[in-house]
Design brief:
Blueprint lengths: L1 E6 L7 E8 L2 E6 L3 E4 L4 E2 L8 E4 L5 E4 L2 H10 L6 H6 L2 H33 L2 H18 L1 E3 L4 H16 L8 E7 L5 E4 L3 E5 H7 L2 H16 L2 H20 L3 H5 L1 H6 L5 H17 L5 H14 L6 H4 L5 H12 L5
């Protein structure tokens, strides 16, 4: 017999009672009495300090603070804690569960999220990506870009070379080359609307048509692999997860313009775009060294001066330059 507090679930009146279990039946006696089959009761999980609650079918309940006596009573009646509760009371179980959760989160971030984002991006209607890209360009035009000051003849020459370069790719949809003068310096980037923005500053910095084609081939790779859209999907998923965990997305919203202006693709997407550019250059009878020379030239330009914006979006390393030359030796590059 265990002392307990009984509430009818309708009023706040407290009833001092005794609770016992006999042959699968629960008995309540004292200020009030009732008899209920044990199987009809809902028994809360055991907590370290909080009293356990035993709820009756009609919403009434009783509370018992003596955990030891209640455990002994239920144990004798064949009532056992759930697996989750037993694990919570076992530090090894808690450590194992925490390790599994961390492992699942890490694997999902590294593999499941990129794979899912890729599948979604590749199957989005073209109109969706066009809308995203047009909105991004409109934002940049209002805040950072002005009409190109390159001579029209120079623009036509670059456009003709790029048209010839991209023709060997056999893309079903055309790629638009957009010339702009930029307040943020030498830059080139791809938009999901199948537009490649090329700034006057980068054209003047490189001043080499073959190297410009290498840059445009790299950006074309970003378009064909839907890297921009994939990044948006992944960032949105991470933001949603953050909101679920922390309930505050204000920092995410505030960071949207920064993401748009400084689109830092992951190492994998940059490597994919490099490989695409190398293969495209080889198809057009051009040396893949042009791409390596671009980054080497920008790296030299960076020393002693402010970082070149185009280079700041690409993790330039000797390993990356080595990979560019390895791509040229790959069987599918020829």
């Amino acid at each position: 017999m265990i002392n307990a507090r009984y509430f009818d679930g309708k009023t706040s009146r407290l009833h001092q009672v005794q609770f016992r279990v006999d042959d699968g039946t629960a008995y309540v006696t004292g200020d009030m009495s009732r008899v209920v089959p044990l199987r009809d009761l809902q028994i809360s999980d055991r907590m370290r300090h909080a009293p356990r609650r035993i709820t009756f079918p009609d919403g009434a309940y009783l509370e018992c603070s003596d955990q030891g006596e209640l455990d002994a009573l239920f144990s004798a009646s064949g009532v056992t804690d759930t697996l989750v509760v037993r694990l919570q009371r076992n530090w090894r179980g808690v450590a194992l569960a925490a390790t599994l959760i961390v492992g699942i989160v890490v694997l999902s971030y590294l593999y499941l999220l990129p794979w899912s984002a890729t599948m979604i991006a590749r199957n989005l209607p073209a109109g969706v990506e066009a809308s995203i890209g047009d909105g991004a360009l409109e934002f940049l035009d209002k805040n950072f870009f002005s009409p190109s000051k390159l001579p029209l003849e120079r623009q036509r020459n670059i456009q003709a070379s790029f048209t010839e370069l991209s023709a060997t790719h056999n893309s079903e949809l055309p790629i638009a080359l957009v010339f702009r003068s930029s307040k943020i310096g030498a830059n080139a980037f791809a938009l999901p609307s199948r537009q490649i923005v090329l700034t006057d500053e980068l054209v003047n910095l490189l001043n080499n048509n073959d190297e410009l084609m290498a840059v445009l081939g790299h950006e074309l790779g970003h378009i064909e692999e839907h890297h921009f859209t994939r990044r948006i999907i992944q960032s949105s998923a991470i933001a949603a997860g953050t909101a679920l965990l922390f309930g505050d997305v204000s920092n995410v919203i505030a960071g949207v313009p920064t993401v748009l202006l400084d689109l830092k693709y992951s190492r994998d997407t940059e490597s994919d775009a490099d490989a695409f550019a190398v293969h495209l250059l080889i198809k057009n009878g051009m040396s893949p060294d042009n791409l390596a020379q671009v980054f080497e030239k920008l790296s030299r330009q960076q020393k002693g001066v402010e970082p070149v914006p185009y280079l700041s979006r690409h993790p330039l390393t000797q390993e990356r330059l080595s990979n560019i030359r390895k791509f040229a030796l790959a069987p599918d590059a020829h």
